Amino acid sequence: MISWVKGKLVSSWQTNNKFYILINCQGLGYEIQTIESVFNELNSKNVSDKEIILWLKHIKKEDSDSLFGFFTKDQRDFFIQILNIKGIGSQIGIALLNKFTLNQIINAISNNDKKLISSVQGIGQKMTDRIILELKSKVFTQQIEKENLKTNNFLEENKELNSIFEDLELTLQSLNYPNKKIKNLFPKLINDIKDNKIATLEINSISFESLLKEAMNYLDKNSSNLGQ
Question: Is DNA repair one of the keywords (predicted)?
Fold first, then answer.
């Protein structure tokens, strides 16, 4: 399976609201359908003599063999996810990514914003419901994973704070708070610390007691928002 391609832009063109580019990769020409934002950025810069990288999805059918390319792996992965929904083809996925950024789409799915999703040509109410139903849990899980990664990186750079969070996790577990809710809470606490949203949690003067108090208050008030 082709995952990504690196090569020089040869040409680009638009046909019936579809955007295409041709990339020369070691003497082979790859014709790739892309989204409007990628197409516009490549055409707004002088990149003809520079190598570019696109993340690819290869779709092979009986009567066609197509490549779809994106600047980021997240865009490509979302495109793959939406193709896995029954009744949704590649052009619906492309149309959605043409009209909105990936963050806008993810926020719409997370917030059940049916109006935004259904504003894309070709997506009706039933398809909108299906997209939100099938992708909402996946989007939430991916957001949590990214936040947890940021949290781990931040704690690795702050050894004293990392030690406090390790003690905090053990204490909350001993108080019978669910482990998943504890894990999901930590990114929020880290963000509040970094943004100075909590007066008692200034990064240079954090105590275990103050952090435990904030954690318990949040868990008791917002447990339904942190998963089971």
Answer: yes
